[in-house]
Amino acid sequence: MRTKLFFIILLSVLCINSISAQKKNTKITITGTVLDAAKSPIVNAIVMVDGQKTNSVTDSKGNYKIKVKPTASKVGIFTFGNGILEEVLDGRTRINFNFGTSASQQLPDQTIAPGEQGVGVGYATVKKKNLTTDVSKINGTNKKYASYSSISDMIQREVSGVRINGSSVIIQDSRDLFGSVPALIVVDGVYMNELPGIPPSSVKSIEVLKGTAAAIYGSRGYGGAIIIKTKIQND
């Protein structure tokens, strides 16, 4: 009798623990709408969770829906034309983003006098003739790049010393004690973990910063940097 009672109690404890674990792992659904400065819906904006891109994008009405882990702390929206916005979850399940009333994260840009070709170096733009560090620039407005199938194809064919393996971009075989160090990727002032899947026809320019040229980004630029400007944001 005691043995039977013991197994009943043990089974009850196991069931309670299992239910509790399931509740902790249950994902939370977050919804919202994304609008631009004119209060129009932004279509195909990428939804991010804790700074990482997801496969979720906004629909034709600017609406999004995504499931996040209970441990998630922030939800963000990335757009090629407006930059990026992030909001702390703080228990909320409905978060709207308005790029007209909130400040998006962008890298500053400075103007070069007419006739002088400029090269972005992270914190500013300098005249190419005054540049002493190793920077390669691709002018995306050149019609010859229209034949390329992807941005990675453009970079590998036009810039020496760059190796692209999947989503990783390695410049001049940059390495540390733990192996290869991927390059920092910045698209319209927004940090990204991989090359974006935008067509070459949408690219205005690509600047590849090698070695000390990417030092302005600190440790994040140890493996160099790839600065991409799109025609949407910079026309």
Distance between the ends: 82 Å
> Helical content, roughly?
10-25%
Order of helices and strands: HEEEEEEEEEEHEEEEEEEEH
Level-2 CATH architecture of the largest domain: Beta Complex
Point out poorly predicted stretches. Answer: 106-133
- Principal-axes shape call: globular
Number of strands: 18
Strand content: 25-35%
Q: Radius of gyration over alpha carbons? A: 23 Å
CATH structural fold name of the largest domain: Ferric Hydroxamate Uptake Protein, Chain A, domain 1
Structural class: alpha+beta
What would CATH call the class of the largest domain?
Mainly Beta
Determine the mean pLDDT.
75
Please outline the major beta sheet: 5 strands, mixed
Number of domains: 2
Strand order of the largest sheet: 10-17-18-15-16
Summarize the entry for a quick read.
By secondary structure, the protein is α+β, with helices and mostly antiparallel strands. It has helices at residues 2-25, 151-158, 231-234, and strands spanning 28-35, 46-49, 52-57, 63-68, 74-79, 83-88, 97-98, 118-120, 125-127, 135-139, 162-165, 168-171, 175-176, 179-180, 184-187, 190-192, 203-209, 225-230.
How would you portray this structure in words?
The chain is α+β, with helices and mostly antiparallel strands and 235 residues long. The chain has two domains: 25-98, Carboxypeptidase-like, regulatory domain (Immunoglobulin-like); 118-234, Ferric Hydroxamate Uptake Protein, Chain A, domain 1 (Beta Complex). It has three helices and 18 strands. A five-stranded mixed beta sheet has the order 10-17-18-15-16. A hairpin with a 3-residue loop joins strand 5 and strand 6 (83-88). The longest helix is centred in the first third of the chain and has 24 residues, at 2-25. It is globular. Residues 106-133 have low confidence and may be disordered.
